[in-house]
Design goal:
92 residues, 0% helix, seven-stranded antiparallel sheet, 40% strand
């Protein structure tokens, strides 16, 4: 099977905006399904993803964190869109 392609530099990447709905009431860590997004903050900042019973991944830097228990805010209905590139004046 072929490997996934990777970007060589930030110039080869596109900016993406994400949005979703954050529960108003925190839930127990154990009630989240694997690969479900959550945040430790009620405003949904610094989103993470549960990847196993005892691990989460911080989406900002892909750092794996060990988790034993706790309460968090579930994030659902995540959508994304490409950010509009800034227009550059034509150079002649």
């Amino acid at each position: 099977m072929p490997s996934l392609p990777s970007a060589v530099s930030a110039a080869d990447m596109s900016t993406v905006n994400f949005s979703g709905l954050v529960d108003r009431t925190p839930v127990e860590w154990t009630s989240l399904e694997n690969y479900e997004a959550f945040s430790l903050a009620a405003d949904g900042s610094f989103p993470m993803m549960k990847v196993s019973r005892s691990k989460a991944v911080r989406l900002s830097d892909r750092k794996v964190l060990m988790v034993g228990s706790g309460r968090c805010y579930r994030i659902s209905q995540i959508t994304n869109s490409l950010a509009k590139p800034s227009s550059k004046p034509d150079q002649e």
